[in-house]
Fold this protein.
Amino acid sequence: MKRFENKQTGILSSSDLKTPYGKVLYWAFFAILALVALIALIPGIWTIMTAFKDTQEIYSAFGFFPKDMSWGRMVSRVSESWNALQLGDSFINTIVMSLGSLAMHVVVCGFGGYVLSKLKPTGSKFIFVLVVWTMMMPSQIRMVPNYISWLHFPFAGDTDMGVNLLDTFWPMWLGAGADTFAVLLFKNAFDGLSDSYVEAAKLDGCSNYGVFFRIMLPLAMPVIIFQSINVLSGAWSDFFTPLLVLDKNAVVPLKIYRLQADTSVQMNTYFMALVFASIPPFIIFAVFQKQILGGINIGGVKG
Amino acid sequence: MKRRLRLRNNIDAWILMLPMVVILYLFVWRPTVMGTVWSFFNMKAYTVKDFCGLDNYIKVLSHTQFVPMLWNTVQYVLWSLVIGFFPPLFIAIMINEIVHFKGGFRVLIYIPAVIPGIAAMLMWYFMYYPDHTGLLNMILGKFGIEPYQWLNDPNFAILGIIIYSTWKGFAGTMLLYYASLQSVSVEIYEAAIIDGAGPFKRMWHVTRPAMEGLLLLNLVRQIISVFQIMEQPLAMTGGGPNGASTSLSYQLYQYGFNSGGKGTGQAMALGVIIFLILIVFTIFYFWLNRKVEDRY
């Protein structure tokens, strides 16, 4: 057990692990974690397994695994379901919506956080207090008024003027910018960068925008990447705003919510839809695993 | 010269900040004020009619289901604390102690958080399915037990939704605790060992004080966020059976978007009521946050 000797001392130390008591405790921890991992995985695995079953099999056999697990069968289930579900348009819609949300989020919250942190113009103190106070306010109070302003953007209330934003992605895009928590997160991230960078660059004749785009933005990249991942995966699971807003241009989360009531879709195909909907977030997770699992340090900041 | 420079800085800064101020004004600050004002007005679908005083509030509060819904919401919060509050902490502590397969556990345990919310809700909806096609009844069936109603049982619906939410959300909180655990210095643990403290004593006297602040903050945050639960009943139970899992926020959604335009005013009144209930916790949160930050 070489690995025990290098163990960092915590609740258990390497000397504890030489005693039977310590060993029992350690392997008990290990067993509990294995159990937790199993609980975390089973619903997903079951969904995948059910997606590969025959419809009759779902209603009669009640087994965990599909009977026929040959490669050819699996491929044909995937293509059958993809053709039956017609999710292609929704996938494109969701990609457009996510990327728009991402751009809006970074521009609005990132710029805002930077100004509140470093430039601090006259009046920024007041804005900062407003941001902090609205951060914890329940969003329910704004739900209906927001819907009303989507109907007559940018006016609130009953007018003939304004643009109707229903069935466009604008409500989601604008909503991605209206994130007070993210503003504070960016502000805290910029707070962590030294002011001397700004001063040095200014002495070299850099403009305010130059400082931001050429120096601060690259330095803040880890936070921006971390937030981008959050926004992208958030957009892939957002179904409530689309439920209020979208009709024809449905996004994937909305589509699978509606499919639940659609009796023409077979059970196994429906489970396959859940699998399809989960693939993009898993790709993001696979690519950015390090940032997601390690980047929480910067996520733990508060107002 | 200096004044001109400051002016220039101010203008540049406000230009960079303008998108944020405009968007927050349009979609956070204005609607918050409007929602409060309009909660005193008669609404016809989404147009404002005339002032009606406390009518909307009276309608909301005198709804025969108001008290049960409030109680449901409190039950959501209580169950989420009973089931979901400590597991992320203990899992974080255990992962911190493990040397075998540590990275693997972190990835596997995080998987529920990766699945898109709505897909996960519907997965669980089918796991709870009341006949033998649902996973849980399938497992019961293997032991020869009759299928259980799960979400169709009014006594279980809320608990079922909270079990799902805990499964979905614990990994995120766990990572937060895990990061904080790593900042507990090794020297203190070693000093505790020299003083003869066993593993559990070390956890109580070294780990606990280091984590207390964060735990308390998360407690308040969890109360605030679970109190607003809406999507889960919407997607998993439709507030049923018989309103047994209807939370205040879900009722607000019903008033606002599923009442044929008759309940819009009530929706905003209910929003204000939820706000008033939560403001107490919010103020407490900020006070606590300041205290915690002073300590570290």
About this structure: Chain A touches chain B through 111 residues (CB under 8 Å).
